[in-house]
Each structure stands twice: as structure tokens, then as C-alpha cells.
Design brief:
Number of helices: 9
InterPro entries: Tll0287-like_dom
Mean pLDDT: 80
Shape: globular
Order of helices and strands: HHHEHHEHEEHEEHEEH
Largest sheet: 4 strands, antiparallel
Radius of gyration: 25 Å
Protein name: DUF3365 domain-containing protein
Low-confidence stretches: 1-27, 56-75, 311-322
Oligomer: single chain
Pfam family, one: Tll0287-like
Number of strands: 8
Keywords: Membrane, Transmembrane, Transmembrane helix
Strand order of the largest sheet: 2-5-4-3
Number of domains: 1
Helix content: 40-55%
Distance between the termini: 90 Å
């Protein structure tokens, strides 16, 4: 007599089903992080565009001020605030490149050198040279924003402070605070921010370079100052947005220049969504800038919200960071 076929699943089938369900329930950590990064990027862009609309309304389309108000002055943005926002983004980009690309990249087998642009050298730019690449990109942009990395002990004489810059940098070394001033010789409003040795690569390069006038640098030493220049004392909301966009484009162009060089390597790292901390990889320019967005979103939005308020510039504001 034939036994009726059991309706219970076999042990093998049950095991396979459980295994499949477990597989479904455990998401790929890297995919989850990538989705989170994309969401962070989209959220930032949405908030950024919304705030731009608010700024335009407050400065351009808001109702006229009462007779005793000074609407024209209220709608102007002091250059100090504009440069503070840009400088903060630069700090985030520099930190990201120094720590996640140079620092982790060296552990993964990547090299970085002052001669990185030589055809025979398979290396990327050191952090200071990455900044120089961004500066060159800005020079080609119509936005009148300039960037200069100077020092009182530079390897290249062209990076030495001159004139009033020397006086201002000496004050920075005493106060550890930015300096804001008008450089009459070049007709530019200027903001100087202390620049510290945050990477062993920076320290080693300066200590070992034959042309370096100082060879006893240590981590966290103030090696110089990042200097931003702008021609006008006040900026409009549109000029602020254009300036920020130009700086972002310069950072992206500088990083893309490194990726372009990487493609010439005999054994180039894979470029995509992974980082050197994951192995012999480099993030694409888009992924790199998405991480920049995630790191600066709060501070940049905060700065934009501050300048969206009616502003009055006064001499007392000079020398005070946001």
C-alpha cells in the first residue's frame, strides 16, 4: 500500500529556503552605504536649492524696507562671510583628500609625489599640490575668486609671503585665527586662514626636500596659510552662489586631474564607488564630491542661512570668522 506523500517540505528544501531568506534579509553593507551616500547627496541638493530660493526672495524679491531702513545695504553680503563659506569647504576637501586618498592610498600601494605630473612618475599630487591644481582651475573660471597657499618657509620662492601678508601671517601665528584685510597693491579683499600639517606626507616632503628652508616640521605645525582673494567688499546672493559653484568645480577638476593621471599607470587602481580603505581602489570624481557634500552640508547651509538674513557690514566685523 502506497503511503500518502507528505505535505511537509523536505529537510533539504527547508534548509535551502531558510538560507535564501537569510540572504534576503542581510543587505550588502557597501550597497547600503552607497544608497545612504546618494540619499545624503540628494538631500543636500534639495535643501541647497530650497535655500537658494529663500535667499533670492529675501535679497531680491522681498518687499521694500520702510523709509528709515537701508534696503540696499541690507541685501549686501560682506566678502568675509563669502570667503568663510568657501574656506570651510576647502578645509573639508583638503581633509578628505589628505586622509582618505593620500593617507589610505599609501597603505593600499598608491604613491604621491611633487613630480606627479611627470610622464614617467606613477604618483598623484601631494595635498598642497592638489590645492595648487584647484587654484589653477579657478584662474580659468570667470568668477573673480583666487586662491593662494603661502608660507614663511616655502619650498618654492613663489609661495613666500610678501608685504602685508608677512605681517598678517605673524599675527595668525599668535592668535591662531583668520585675518581679513584689503591688499591695496593687488586691489583684493583678502582672507588668510591657518594651514596645518595634517599629514605625514606633508611633513616628510618638507623635511626631506633639498630646497626646503626648514627641515624640522612636525604634525600639526602651522606650515602656512590658505589665502582667498576677491575684488569686491560686498557680494550679491547670485555672486555668492556663483563663487561657491566655481570653488566646487575647481575641487572636482583637481581631483579629476589625478584620476586622469592614474589611467596612465601600468597597474591602475579600479575607479568607481570604492575607496583606498577598501583596497586598491579610487572613488570616481562624482563619488568624491558626494562625500564632500555629505561633510560640508551642515556648515555650508548654516553659512548660507546666516547671509540670508538682512546684513549690515561694519568695520567691527573685520577679523571675525563666522
Amino acid at each position: 500500500m502506497c503511503r500518502p506523500r507528505s505535505t511537509m517540505p523536505s529537510r533539504r528544501l527547508l534548509s535551502a529556503t531558510i538560507s535564501t531568506e537569510r540572504h534576503r534579509r542581510i543587505p550588502d553593507p557597501s550597497s547600503k552605504k552607497q544608497r545612504r551616500n546618494r540619499m545624503s547627496h540628494k538631500t543636500f541638493l534639495l535643501m541647497f536649492l530650497t535655500l537658494i530660493g529663500s535667499i533670492v526672495y529675501l535679497f531680491v524679491e522681498a518687499p521694500q524696507a520702510l523709509p528709515d531702513g537701508k534696503a540696499g545695504e541690507d541685501r549686501a553680503i560682506p566678502v568675509n562671510r563669502l570667503l568663510d563659506i568657501v574656506a570651510n569647504e576647502n578645509n573639508a576637501v583638503r581633509a578628505l583628500y589628505t586622509q582618505e586618498i593620500v593617507g589610505e592610498g599609501e597603505k593600499a600601494g598608491l604613491q604621491f609625489s611633487e613630480d606627479w605630473q611627470e610622464a614617467s612618475v606613477e604618483a598623484g599630487p601631494l595635498p598642497a599640490l592638489f590645492l595648487r591644481e584647484a587654484s589653477r582651475s579657478l584662474e580659468k573660471n570667470a568668477t573673480p575668486l583666487s586662491l593662494f597657499l603661502g608660507s614663511d618657509f616655502p619650498i618654492a620662492s613663489s609661495n613666500a609671503f610678501k608685504g602685508i601678508q608677512i605681517e598678517k601671517f605673524n599675527r595668525i601665528k599668535q592668535t591662531l585665527r583668520p585675518e581679513y584685510f584689503y591688499a591695496a597693491d593687488i586691489r583684493r579683499y583678502t582672507a588668510m586662514y591657518p594651514d596645518y600639517a595634517v599629514s605625514a606626507a606633508c611633513v616628510d616632503c618638507h623635511n626631506e626636500h633639498p630646497n626646503s628652508p626648514k627641515k624640522d616640521w612636525h604634525l600639526q605645525d602651522m606650515m602656512g596659510a590658505t589665502t582667498w582673494l576677491y575684488p569686491d567688499e560686498m557680494a550679491t546672493p547670485g555672486e555668492l552662489i556663483e563663487t561657491l559653484a566655481a570653488a566646487r568645480e575647481a575641487f572636482k577638476t583637481a581631483y579629476q586631474a589625478y584620476l586622469d593621471k592614474v589611467t596612465t599607470f601600468g597597474n591602475p587602481p579600479m575607479i568607481g564607488e570604492k575607496w583606498p580603505r577598501d583596497g586598491y581602489y579610487l572613488p570616481s570624481a562624482e563619488v568624491f564630491m558626494q562625500e564632500v557634500d555629505a561633510r560640508v552640508a551642515g556648515a555650508t547651509l548654516g553659512g548660507l542661512m546666516q547671509v540670508s538674513q538682512p546684513l549690515m557690514h561694519s568695520p567691527e566685523d573685520d577679523g571675525k570668522p563666522l
